[in-house]
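Document type: protein sequence-to-structure record

Subject area: structural biology

Format: plain text, a pair of labelled lines:
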Amino acid sequence: MFQLLVTAEGGLTTAGYGVCVGAGILLFLLAIFFAGKNSERQQMSTRQLIFCAMAMALAFVTSYIKLFEMPWGGSVTLCSMLFIVMAANWYGVKTGVFVGLAYGILQFIQEPYVLSLFQVCCDYVLAFAALGVAGLFSRSPRGLLKGYVAAVLARGAFHALGGYLYWMDYMPENFPQSLKSVYPIVYNYSFLLVEALITVAVISVPAVASALIQVKKTAVS
């Protein structure tokens, strides 16, 4: 079954793309279900649907705007993680996790690479779902900023786990053994933290911060 979905080079077959698209749609619908589960009015659920869709669309579009790309995967994008974090900040952890899951499937379709099923889970499914932890800070002062930092750290942890379990096996034979214990952490957090610094600088601008507060009020009202 696995061979029907993945090519020998680690990409996706036509069937693999079909399964991923279907999974992405399903996960997005689940995200919308949790977004509207506690709504007292249907209008609220519709608004949440629109805002979750907008957040995913903006995240996907900005993920193509790469300021810097790493040689073994990973890149610094134009604040693409921020939009998934915003969905978690608006509607809580459950919605943030499911929106992140759906977005991870889109990322996999965009730039697939398969070493194993668990590697895919670490690099695409779990890593982007982890952005939903931002919802834990949704009610605290400067919750978007705190949630964003927590989300970036959580995403990096899953990328590093995938690096330890799979990617290090593909390093050159002359790669220093003493660096194997820290390399996955340094590599993955190098580009994630650069993007985080850029994003934090942007959302800390008073005019931007005020605008994001107004967006949240509109999203949850």
